[in-house]
């Protein structure tokens, strides 16, 4: 595996968050593929119970076990894990209390589900704990890390700080003992330079504002901010002069109609109607371009690295996922 300089050298846990509808899971999957390229082994983790990873990779629903889901360019492997809170709690009971058999009995009584429902902080500790364990895990035979990197498809931006801030979340559950110690180990991973919290957004007002708010919350909580992935970016199709003319109401519909006639694309009233429809499209494109440029400037003020991923006309299938992974690598994010 050849060395390659990236913006995130030394980062082993990539947390991906974003407002709903921005393509957070898609970006997390593409980032995992990009990180695995060239012979690396990467684990992609989801915690929301939506089976989003299975949908993105077009595979059956994932069980609660690490399973290979893709081969990256250059021979790397992407494994995936859909964390189930109940199964994670059984693991926790066995690891710290030797109570797996008792845990199964508790599960039948519904006590495990009850515990994670009344204490959502415990649920977050279990989720982040399993992810942190994968980051730290070593092969007993070689002593090497099992995974070169772990990508966590985290909750949306509005909940991610609470989700990651496990030390605070567990404070009301336990002040001493295994739960507190476990939370402190998790915090040691999540708040370290080995972690980066990336944010996914669109060039639209609400997602950008939520991204800015999320960055402020992460910084206030002293959690490590990563990069901003601007998803579904449309190309600017027209020259600046045409955009400015449209915005200032100087787009010449008559001239456009004459051009359509000269090109034998339309004639008479049809040419005029088509020219008016095209002029309206140009105006809409100009307004959207103006908005997107303004949102880019706001994101630039954060000082964080920014990566632009194109809007795929055919939607995001498996081939599209590999295309996005290549774009991520070309921009130095992996």
UniProtKB/TrEMBL annotation:
Signal peptide: none
Keyword terms of this UniProt record: ATP-binding, Nucleotide-binding
Pfam families associated with the record: ArsA_ATPase
Record's keyword annotation contains ATP-binding: yes
A GO MF term: ATP binding
Keyword Nucleotide-binding listed: yes
Domain ArsA/GET3 Anion-transporting ATPase-like: 13-171
Name the record gives this protein: Arsenite efflux ATP-binding protein ArsA
UniProt organism field: Thermopolyspora flexuosa
């Amino acid at each position: 595996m050849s060395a390659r300089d990236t913006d995130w050298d030394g980062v082993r846990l990539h947390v991906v968050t974003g407002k709903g509808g921005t393509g957070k899971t898609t970006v997390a999957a593409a980032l995992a593929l990009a990180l695995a390229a060239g012979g690396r082994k990467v684990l992609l983790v989801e915690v929301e119970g939506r089976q989003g990873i299975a949908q993105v990779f077009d595979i059956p629903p994932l069980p609660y076990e690490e399973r290979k889901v893709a081969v990256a360019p250059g021979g790397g492997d992407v494994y995936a894990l859909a964390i189930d809170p109940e199964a994670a709690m059984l693991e926790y009971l066995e690891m710290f209390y030797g109570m797996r058999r008792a845990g199964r009995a508790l599960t039948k009584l519904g006590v495990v589900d009850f515990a994670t429902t009344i204490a959502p902080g415990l649920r977050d500790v279990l989720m982040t704990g399993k992810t942190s364990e994968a980051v730290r895990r070593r092969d007993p035979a070689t002593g090497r890390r099992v995974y070169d990197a772990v990508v966590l498809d985290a909750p949306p931006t509005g909940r991610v700080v609470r989700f990651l801030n496990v030390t605070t979340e567990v404070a009301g559950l336990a002040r001493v003992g295994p739960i507190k110690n476990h939370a402190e180990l998790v915090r040691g991973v999540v708040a370290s330079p080995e972690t980066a919290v990336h944010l996914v957004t669109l060039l639209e007002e609400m997602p950008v504002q939520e991204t800015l708010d999320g960055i402020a919350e992460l910084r206030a909580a002293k959690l490590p901010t990563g990069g901003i992935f601007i998803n579904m970016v449309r190309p600017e199709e027209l020259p600046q002069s045409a955009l400015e003319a449209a915005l200032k109401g100087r787009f010449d519909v008559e001239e456009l109609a004459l051009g359509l006639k000269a090109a034998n694309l339309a004639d008479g009233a049809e040419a005029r109607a088509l020219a008016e429809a095209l002029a309206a499209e140009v105006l809409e494109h100009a307004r959207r371009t103006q908005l997107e440029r303004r949102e880019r400037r706001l994101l630039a003020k954060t000082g964080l690295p920014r990566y632009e991923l194109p809007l795929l006309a055919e939607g995001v299938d498996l081939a599209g996922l590999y295309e996005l992974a290549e774009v991520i690598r070309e921009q130095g994010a992996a």
